[in-house]
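Figure S4 source data
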Amino acid sequence: MISLILLLITLSFGKKCNEYNEYISVVDTVDSVFECIDELIISEDNKKSVINDLKRNLESYVYKDILKNPPTGSYYYEKVDIDDGLNKINMASGSVYEFYSQIQNLFISAKDPLLSLSIKQNHGSYRNYIAYFYYFLPFNIMIDKEKHMYLIPKYYYKNVKIDIPTEIENNKDIYVKSINGNDPFEIIREFGNKYSSFKSPHAQFTNSKSSILDNSFTQGNLLLLPLSNHYLNTPITITWENDESVDVHYNLLKLSNYQCINQEDKIILSSNENYTNINNKRNEYGDKYDNIYCKVSNNNINTLVIKGYDINKDLYLLQKCIELFDSNEYPIQVILPENKDGSEELGIWIQKLLTPNYDANLLSSARESDNTLSILKKGYMEYFVDPKTCEKRGVYGDEGIEIEDCMRRSTEKDDAWVLYRYCIKRQRRWYTKPKTIKYGDIKHKITQISEYVSEPPIQPLKHQRKPTKIIIYTYSFCYSTCSFITKGLKEWGGAIIVGFDGDPNGKDEEIEVGQAPSNRMMNIITEKQYDYKPLEFSLSYSILETFKHNYKYNENIPREFIKDVIDERVNIYPYVIGDEIIEEFEEETKKIVEKYQTKCNPNNKRLVKIDNKCDKEINIKHGHGGYECGDNGEWSTKCVLAYCDSGYKFDYNKNKCVKGICAYPSSGNRTMIINLVMVIVGLMMIIL
C-alpha cells in the first residue's frame, strides 16, 4: 500500500483558491478558507438555468404536494413549499456557496434524507472546491449507559493529524456538565433540528453526534452541509463535571485531490481482501467492516449486522448467513447501525428470507406530472405490476413480450387482435389516468398503485423463527432500503423492533423504526454558460412513495408520513465495530426474548405470540393464529389470525387469507402465450 505523507499547514490569513496545492492536505482557519470560497462566482443566467432545471425535475418529487400540508397526526412535520422556496433564492450574480447553501437549506427543511443537491467533483476546476473542504472539532462524542457525555480527542481526521487542546486531552475521562452553559445534549438537538434531513428527533440526534458521517456536529464536508462562516466562527464553551472549561473552534481541512482518489482505492481493496477469507471462518461469515456480517455466539444467539445493501457484493454473504442460522434454532438478532441506502430489492429479500410468511412487496406510486410521464415512458417502472391483476407495468408503446403478462390471461375464444389492443390500452391507462388524494386544500395526483414483486434467489430460513424470537435493533437513522425492512416487519408483526442510540433523554415513543421508505431518483444539472468547465450538480429526490398493504389498494397516506415506533429500547450508545458491542446486544436480546414469553407491547397488536393451538379456534382457511397482546402488557388468551400459508396474503382489514395474485402459469402455458404475442406483433409489422 502506498504511504501518503501529508503536510499540515495552519494559516491565519486569507488565501486565494489557486494558492492551495492540490497534492497537499491543509488545515486552515475558517476565515482563510472562506477567502477562497467567496471568490467562487455563479452568474445570474446560470442561476436561472439551474433553478429552472431543478423545478422541472422536482415536478417528479413525490412529496412535493404533501409537504405543503402534511397529514393530521404528523407531529413533527412542518409545512414546506418547495416551489415558493426556490422562487425566493437570490438570483443576482454572486457566490456559488451562498447560492448552493440556500438550496440545501431549503431541501433540509423538507426533512427527507433522499432530497439533496451536491456539486460534483471536477478535477482541474477551482469553482467546485467546496467539495474538498471539511470542517471539524478536535473531539468525538461518546455517551455511556448512565447517559453521560464524554469528549474523546480526535487525533486524526481524514488521515491528517490534529492539534488537541490540553483541556480536551486531560478531561477525556470526565463527563461534560454543560456546553455554552446549557445541558450538553441540547447543542446536539439544536444542530440536528436545524441541519439534519431527518424527521425523527432521534434520527436527527444520531446524525448530529456521529463520528462516522460527514454531516455531523463534530465533523463534515461543506458539500454535504454548507455551514455558514458565522456558524463555524462561533466559539463553543465546554465545561466538565470538575468545573474545568475550554473554548474550542472549528477548523477547516482542504483535502488533497490525490488523497480522495487514494481513499476510494483503499476501500475497494479492503473489500476484496475480506471476501477471500470467507470460507475459512466456522461460526461467522463476512468481516466486521463488510455491509453484511453474521456469527453464532457462545450465548446461543445468531447475529446479523447489516450496514448497507449492495446485491452484487452482499448476496453471497447473506446466503451464507441464512445457512449458518439454519444450523441451529437460536433466536436471531439483527443490528442495523447508521444504515446507508441501496438496493430496495435486497431490502425486500432480507424480509422474505427472515420472515417468508409476510408480504414484503412494495406498493408504490409516482407524482403525476409531465416530467414523471417522460420518466415512465422510458420504462422506469417496468418491473412493477398491477397489484390487482399482476400484469406488468410496461412502457409507452409496448410490444411483444412486454404485454405478455396481460395476454397470458387469454383463452382460446379470445380474439387475438382485440385482446392485443385491449392490453395496450390497459397498459397505458395506469399512468394517464392518475388518482387524486386531498390533504385539506392540497391535491396530490399520483399514478395508480403499482407493486414491486421480487423473490430472493436463495432459500429462506428452513428453521423459521417466531416473531418473538427475532429482534431487530434499529434507530430512526435507518432510512430508505433499511426502512423497507423495519417498517415492513413492524406492519406485519414479524419481529420485535428495539431502539438503541438516539437522544438519551428523548421520548421512546419518538423513536421511529425507520425513515424515508421511498425510491430515489438522481439527475445531473449542468450550467448552461461557461468558459472552461461547467459546474455540475447532482440532484437526488424521492420519486416513488410506498404504502401499507391494504388489498383494496386505496391507502391515502404514504408510509413516509405514518409514525411507526419501536417496541422496546436499550441503552446502547452507539454501535462500534467489535465483539464487545455484539455481546452487549446479545445480553439485551436474551432479556427481551425472556420478557416476551409472558409480556408484550400493548401498543402493538400486530405482534402475536404464535401458537398452533389457535389455528383451530380462529378457523380461517389457510390461516394460522396466535395470542394477541392484552392492554395490560401481557399475552391474552384471545386467539387471532397471525399469518397465512405460502401463496396467500393476510388481509388484516377483512381478517382473512386471500389468494396471492402473482402466481405465474406453467412454462407450457407461458410458451403458448409468448408465441401468440409474437404472431400478433408480426401481423402488425405487415399491416404497418
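Figure S5 source data
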Amino acid sequence: MNDGDTDRRVVDGRFELESRVGGGGMGTVWRARDLLLHRSVAVKEVRPADPDLAEYDPDSARMLRERVLREGRALARVQHPNVVTIHHIVDGGEGTYPWIVMELVEGGSLADRLARAPMTPAEAARLGRGVLDALRAAHAAGVQHRDVKPANVLLRTDGRPVLTDCGIAAIRDSTALTATGSIIGTADYMAPERVTGGDGGPAADLWSLAMMLYVAVEGHHPLRRGTTLATLAAVLHEDVPPPRQGGALAPLLAAVLVRDPGARPDAETTDRMLAAAEQAGDEPTATSYPLAPARNAVPAPIPTPSDTVVPSLDRQVRVRRAALASVAAGAVLVGGITWVAWPDGNGNKASASTTTGGQHSTPASTPRADTPLPSPATRLATGMLTPDGIRMALKAIEDKTGRDTFGDLAVYPEYVSVKAMVPGSRTRYDSYTYHPGRGVEKGPLNGTLMGTEPVSLKNYRWDLLPALLTLAEQKLNVDKPMSRYLLLQAPSRLSNTPAGMAVYLSDDYATGYVLATPQGKVTNVVPADG
C-alpha cells in the first residue's frame, strides 16, 4: 500500500481507501475508490484475529494466506446476483496477507437491519430464498460458505440479499486450512456436524441459513450461551426450542434445525417451503410442529465494559448493579450492599444484609441479616451440577490430561466442559468434556485465550454451589427455570475483571445470574427481565 502526498492510502497503486465500513475476525472492510475505472468498490484487508500469528506460528500465517487466495479465486467463479462480485485480489507475496476487491453493496447488512427490529415470517422467508439461491450457486461451483450469518448477508438498496465473506468459504474436498486457534465459522450458526470436525456438506450451510432465519423472526438466538465453548456444547447436545414468532416459517425451521444432516430437506425442498411461507403472509400459525420441547434458553454473558449487545438480536438482561464490599460474615458495613454466602454446621446457608451511613437496615427487597435464606433445595443441584459432580469431573480431566489450569468451565446437569491449558502455556488451550458413564472426551475446540487469564480451580468453594442455586431461584425472577448451569468468569486483563463463577437460571426467553467470587461470596445479582 502506498501513501500519497495528501496522506491518501492507496492499495496496489489503484484502490484509494476512503472509510472503514465493517470488520471482524478475518479483517477489515473499506469503502474505496477504483482510480482506474472511477467507481466505488469494497476492499477487504484480510488479517488474522491475532496480529502476532506470523511471528509465533508462521506456518499457520502462510496457510491462511494460501486459503484466502485459493477460496477467493474459487468464489470469483460464482456469478450470481445474490453473491457479492469479486473484482480483483491483491497479493503481495510471501509474508503478506491478501486484499480482496469486491463490489460495494450500499444497503448495510442483515445484522444492521435486525438491530432495528425482528422480521415478519414472510419477510424472513423472502430474504431466505435469496440467500438460498446464492448458496445453491456456490454449492454448484464446489464452494461451501461455512459462515452464513446476519453480518455476512448484505442488502442492496431495494432489499435484495447478497451473500459475502470469501475469507471463510471453503472449496469442497480441499484440505481444511485454518489459522491456529481459529474456528472456521461462527459458533452461533455452525451446524453440529461441523462442530465435531466434519465437512458437513451443503446441508450444514442450510442449518446456518435456518438458524439465521430463526434469529431474524425471534430476535434472539436459541442456543447462544455465555461462552463460545458453552455455545458449541449447546449446538451439539441441545434441541432447538420452537419459535414463538415463526408463523408460516415454523415448519421450515422445524425441518432443517435437526442435528442429523441426512434428515434435513435438500435445497430444492427448502426453497419450496420458503416459498410457501412467503406466500402465506404473516397470519398467525399454530406452532405444534415436531421440534423438541425447549429445555434450555438464551443465557446472556457476564457483562464486561467491552461487551456490546445488539438489542434486537439478544434478549437484554436487566443489569442491576449494587455497591459492593467484601467483608467477613458479621462485619459492620458503611454504605452499599453485600451478599455473603457461607456454610454453617447444619449445611450450606445464604444470607444478606445492608447498612447505610453506618446504620444497619433491612430493605424490603432483601432478607433480614439475622434470617438466613432457606436451606438449599436438593432438587436444584442435580447430576454434574453439584459439588461432588464438579470435583469428580475435574479430577477425571486432570487424571487423563495432566492439566489442572483452565481458561473456561461450563457445568450443566448432564456434563462438564473445560478449556484446559496446554502445559507450559498461559494462552493455548484444548477443550475437553466429561460425561458420566462416558468419561473424558477431547472436544473440537483448541486455540488461544484472548484477553483472559487461566486459573486453577483447586481453591474454588464448590460446597457453596447449592446455596448459590437457592439464592438464584429466589432472586432472579425466573419462576419456572428450564435450565440451570454454572460458568467460570475468567479474570480479564482487558476489563480488569476478577476471577469468579456465575450461576444461571433460564426460561424460554429470559436469563438471570448470580455472580460470586471463587470463595462463594456473592458480588452481583442480575435478575431476568420481568
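The chain has a mean pLDDT of 75. Residues 223 and 234 are 6 Å apart (CA to CA).
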